[in-house]
Amino acid sequence: MSDSSRPLSKSVWSKIDVKSWAITEFTLRQYQTRKSTWAIGMIGILLVTLVLLFYVKGQTSEIDSIDQDGDSYDWDGDGYSIAQELQYGTNPDDPTDFPNVTALPLSNWIDEDDFSYSMNGEKCQRNVYGIVSEGVCQINVDDDGDCERLGWVLQNQLIGQGGKDSNYDNIDCSVFISTANGLNVIPDKFVDEDPDDNLYFHETVHRAFVLGFGKIGFAFLMGIFLPLFLATGLIRDEMESETLHYLIGKPIARGEFYAYRLGGYFVMTWFYLATLVFIINLITGFIGPSDSFFRFGDIQIWASILFATCLMVMAYGTIFSTFGIFTKYGMLASIFFGVWEFMMAMLTLIGTGSFFITRMSIVFWGMQIIDSVSTYTWSDSAYLIQKGNYYDLEGSEAYEAFYGVPSIGSTPLTTLFISTVILIGITAVVFFIGQSAFKRKELR
Question: Is 339 among the domain residues?
């Protein structure tokens, strides 16, 4: 009978496939029967649940709004706010001088000028004292109309200050955004002067949670916690229990055996991570602030978090299992490596990602993936933080702490590609070293 007529079940490729699946399945069954695996899984679920409770509490709470422009006060006690008195030309400091109209609630002038988040606009120039700077001009951002309004007493304050174009960008009642030397936001007079504190708080806290928990909770803690306890003993445990003789006694190369063992580890950890990310994306998508019933724009952020964490779990798992091959103190070596990664994670988070030393870590490249996608998805982040700091709005500090600009590559897409290639490359190199050491290892 010719080779072409051989049944598929007899082919070389099917035999390789059977071997790989047998070892992968054996690895998965080992994980399933170990109490430590279930304990680690439950700890991860409890962590996610606990953090979600704080997130839900933050999103359902309301903060006291601050009247940033101070026009809601009634200093003279006549029942009319400063804004209403100025609107009708009466003296806000004279209790006997007030408009002959119904007094409106003072709360009408708190959060009256909604916050303009987007950086989308027209390219423009700002010319002050002959100094020309390039930037972006946002138009139609005067939500309460106190800059656009004609014949209002407040407009008298603009005489000699450029009129309605007090930022000198040649557009009335706009916001000029310069990115030449760091982000610089310059609004016209009476534009975005009293933003909605709660709107800003809930949006920034949501983004800070996604980035913070994505980077710390998933990429770092999950990324290093799962491999530490599930991958370090992948080969070492079998060597110490003397069961490795039986496992590699079959006609299979040690390098293949090592690869298939890692394959089982990858399948289990990736499935576990995908489940957690799906659940948390679902909950935050419905609870988070949004104009629709669900924050669909966050899906790609959570996808980047899952992608980065899976690559890190793959890299850490390969490194830790290789430590286990080299020495019986593999767990100790993995812990020391984890301490190094923790220090690099902290340096990366505090904005020192440009330091070369941080690039000598796994966590730096994982966070670069998340930052590249978040920068692309939330293009207004820097503007949001800048305006929050300017008005001292709650939530700006939390968002700024976890927001990061990719420091590798000229574009977010380039950063994503470079970081992915490096993490896969590290995994491949360490795997080659590990299987080479495993092939030469003398079993006792």
Answer: yes
Cβ distance 175 to 164 under 8 Å? no
Please write the tens of the pLDDT for every residue from 193-252.
Answer: 888 888 889 999 999 999 999 999 999 999 999 998 888 877 776 665 555 555 555 566
pLDDT at 72 over 70: yes
Name the nearest CA neighbour of 109 among 65, 140, 147, 152. 65
Residues of the domain holding 32:
14-61+198-440
| One-letter identity of residue 369 | I
The verdict on residue 298 lying in a domain is yes
Alpha-carbon span 14 to 17, nearest angstrom:
5
Residues 261 and 408 in one domain: yes
- 299 and 208 in one domain? yes
Look up residue 365 and give its two tokens: 């490249």
Positive or negative, the Cα torsion across 406, 408, 413, 419? negative
- What is the residue-averaged pLDDT of the chain? 83
Same domain, 244 and 297: yes
Residue with tokens 């933080």: 385
Structure-block tokens of residue 393:
């709005």
Q: Is residue 114 part of a domain?
A: no
Tell me how far apart the alpha carbons of residues 24 and 41 are, in angstroms, rounded to a whole number: 19
Q: In 26-130, which ranges are E strands?
A: 122-128
